[in-house]
Each structure stands twice: as structure tokens, then as C-alpha cells.
Amino acid sequence: MRRAREDDEENNLQSKRLRKLSTNKVGWSNAEIERLCAAVEKHGRDWESVAGMVGTRTNQQCRNKVRDEVKAGRMEEPEGKLEYDTWLDDEVDRLREAVGNHGRDWGAVAGMVGTRTTRQWQRKEDFEVKKGRMKEPGGKQEHDAWHHDEVDRLYIAVEKHGTDWTLISNMVATKTAVQCQGKVHQEVKAGRMKEPERSGWQNEEIDRLYEAVGKHGRDWKSVASMVGTKTNEQCRIKVQTEVNAGRMKQPEGN
Q: Cys-Cys crosslink for 212: which of 61, 75, 148, 223, Cβ 3.0 to 4.6 Å?
């Protein structure tokens, strides 16, 4: 009996603590951010352990803050499995409400819910529809619609990678290389973006390419790994260019 009362008291204290934390809307202090960084380095995406180590924020607040820091380039993506399938009931409820309001505008849906990426919401919606728990949302398939955070990432990616659309697409994360190229063309035409510098191969990259091809032939995965700054396809195309120009012999292999 005494043990049961102690458990009830402990549960009540825990509930009060969580309610207090959930209402903490104050900005993150430097000390909290330092604890968050240390916690993420130690626990990765284990948000319960991260929040326990931070001590003043909920699991969700920690996850949101990490997402913001990663987007801003102040923190690397934490290790651990992406939590596509670990959806909370309130997240699913907010998804249904957001889809009801915005249809297939996934940027607006993600913005309304606030705890997942655009791609995660889209995948979850597809899953719920297939399971018969949600109706097919209205609205046009917005393959080419850009949300403001995607445009922000595009500008940063173009500044960093020029016209290397593969790397730009990887950095944007939610658009294909063709979509990124098309959007940049629109931004340049509208006068919102300068014409990006064309991405060429640096001399040291070409030196590493020659060495890699001499060692691995047409094993493009190994070649790209040895070059370190280009994709398999970029290496293959560059080699073909060098061969056509007579600067490189046709590499061995299939």
C-alpha cells in the first residue's frame, strides 16, 4: 500500500515536471544549448535521454531545437535512425488538421505542425491513406512548389556548390537536381539571384581522379570515394571528357 502511494506521488511529480517543461517557451540559454550539444553527441536521436540530460526541456523541444541548429549549419545531423515511424498521436491529429486546411501544400502542412520535415509529413500522409485512415488530400500535386525554407537551403547550396546540381539537390534534400536547376533559373530570371558560377574541376581533384582511375579502372564508386569531392556520375562523365580530349586513355574494366 505504501509502495503504491509512493509510486503515485512519483508519477504526480513527474507529470507536474513535464507540464512545467512543456510551457517553457523562453528562448534557449547558452548553458542549455551546450548541454543539448553534449547530449546529442552522447545519445544521438534518443530524445528521451537527450531531454533528460538537458534537464529543462521536453523531448519535443530538444528535437525541434536540434532540427533548427542543423538547418542553420551550427550542428551536424545527429546519428541514429530517423524517426519516420515513431509518430505521436497528437502529431497524427495535427497532420490530419493541417492536410484538411492545406491539402498537398506540404510546406504549409509541415509549418503548421512544426515537428517533422516536409518529406516526413508527405510519407506519413501516403501511409495513412493506404491504410484507409485518411482520405486522399485535395489539391494539385505540388512537385514544383517551393517552400521558403527550401528556397533558403537552395541559395546556400548554390553559393557553396555553384552549378553542381547533384550536390545542390543533396543539400536541399527535398527537391531533385532538375527541380533545383529549374528554380535557380527562375530566381536568376526574376533578378532575385545572381547567375551561379559554373562548377569545374580543380587541378588537385583531376590529379586524384587520374590516380583513382589508374587504380580502380571503371569502378566508379571506388573512384569517387578516392576523389572525395565528386559523385560516381561526375567522375564517370569527367573521365569520358578527358578520354575524348585525348588526355586520358580509356580506363580498364566493364
A: 223
